[in-house]
Specification:
The chain contains 13 helices and 15 strands. The protein has 411 residues and is an alpha/beta fold. It has 3 domains: 66 residues, no CATH class; 95 residues, Beta-Lactamase (2-Layer Sandwich), CATH 3.30.450.370; 235 residues, 3-Layer(aba) Sandwich (Rossmann fold), CATH 3.40.50.300. Helix 1 crosses helix 2. The longest helix has 19 residues.
């Protein structure tokens, strides 16, 4: 059977199935699957389609009714890390680190919009022409961004960022070459001794994944509060965990709840650690206030091209939320953050820790930094593969927290 005929048969069966479902009765997923199987058996496809093709059609019909339509196949493929939908018939995926166009398509613009509304409803969010931008998540934790018209000129734009189902660990990061065993031991020690750690990097550098892995070094008995725009962190090991998520205003008059609101609220919830998924603006004021008010061992992430650029961005974000002199802002950053870990995505698409920097203090009007580790390339340079290692550049200057934990200088 040619592809055109296959699609026509599938569309006809879908119309028949929708007619059976539109009877005011609730059907379970199992009942819907049984109805699909019965329709396929009665359609006389035994001589036209092989068994594998009939199974594929059955799966596609179920996904179009109860799943996320053509996206369901991509979500089932663990090698797909990013899905980019630029309208109903232009779908791109990132698979095994490579960006490619996918042959699948939505049957219509209306069906794509239905899937978007299904995703929004699943997170109790609203997206429409009045509020055309949405940050949400799927049931498996994948991050979703939606932009509708009139903001998106070439149709609804849907972007899905996926995370490993089994969760990333520091062991796996070492195995993948993102960091080495020495740095892994060092960072675990910093977490356990309650150093405040900030993770920076560009888009797609793996900040959230790294934060997930690093947080596993937090002792199980501690009370952890996570704060995010759209919940992505998966701290499955934590026993005493509180997960908070922002809320947007809507047409029903719901008051928006921002990251700043949640950080202030978290201070009254007896946290041992506060983990903010990402800071993008003035909420860094509350974050640094928490860092400087006895909530040691907290962590967060932010966008920055280098470790130094991240500090400059922090200054800008603080100026957005505080009317104080720049020197006071720099003092606040220097006293609040102990260590900055910078990640990067290299030309061969690998993600690595590029730099670990200690914030040593404030002097002569500037934030003083000290590089502990830096990634250096080795061998011949090529586009296909980047080889190198993290080279130790210095020892930790502020060892007070190590000493307070009874560990002294790390070894």
């Amino acid at each position: 059977m040619e592809q055109k005929e296959y699609e026509a048969v599938k569309a006809s069966l879908k119309r028949e199935l929708l007619g059976k479902l539109d009877c005011g009765q609730d059907f379970s997923d199992r009942q819907v699957q049984q109805m699909i199987d019965a329709l396929l058996c009665g359609a006389g496809l035994a001589g036209k389609l092989e068994v594998a093709a009939r199974r594929t059609m059955s799966r596609e019909l179920f996904s179009s009714i109860r799943g996320l339509d053509v996206l369901q196949e991509l979500l089932a493929d663990e090698n797909v890390t990013e899905i980019m939908v630029n309208g109903p018939d232009r779908i791109f995926v990132e698979k095994d680190g490579r960006l490619m166009r996918w042959e699948g398509r939505f049957e219509s613009m209306a069906r794509l919009q239905d899937v978007i509304q299904q995703i929004a409803a699943g997170c109790n969010r609203v997206v429409n022409e009045a509020s055309p931008i949405l940050d949400a998540r799927l049931a498996d934790g994948s991050r979703v961004n939606v932009v509708l018209s009139p903001v998106a000129l070439n149709g609804p734009i849907l972007t899905v960022r996926r995370f490993p189902r089994e969760g990333m660990t520091l062991d796996r990061l070492v195995a993948l070459g993102s960091l080495d065993e020495e740095c892994r031991h060092f960072l675990e020690l910093l977490v356990q001794c309650r150093y405040n750690i900030f993770i920076s990097g560009g888009t797609g550098s793996g900040k959230t994944t790294f934060l997930n892995a690093l947080s596993q070094a937090i002792p199980e008995q501690e009370r952890i509060i996570t704060i995010e725009d759209s919940a992505e962190l998966q701290l499955k090991y934590a026993q005493n965990l509180v997960s908070l998520e922002t809320r947007n205003a809507n047409m029903e008059g719901c008051v928006p709840v921002t990251v700043r609101d949640l950080i202030r609220a978290s201070l009254r919830m007896r946290p041992d650690r506060i983990i903010v998924g990402e800071v993008r603006g003035a909420e860094i004021c509350e974050l640094l206030t928490a860092y400087n008010s006895g909530h040691a061992g907290s962590m967060s992430t932010g966008h920055g091209n280098t470790a130094r650029d991240m500090l400059l961005r922090m200054e800008t974000m603080l100026l957005m939320g505080m009317d104080v002199p720049l020197s006071a802002i720099r003092r606040q950053i220097a006293s609040g953050i102990d260590v900055l870990v910078h990640l990067g995505r290299l030309r061969d698409k690998s993600r690595k820790v590029l730099e670990i920097v200690e914030i040593t203090g404030f002097s002569e009007g500037e934030i003083q930094t000290h590089t502990l580790y830096a990634f250096e390339e080795e061998g011949e340079r090529s586009r296909e593969r980047v080889t190198g290692r993290l080279v130790k550049k210095g020892d930790l200057v502020h060892v007070e927290k190590l000493e307070a934990a009874g560990l002294g200088q790390w070894a």
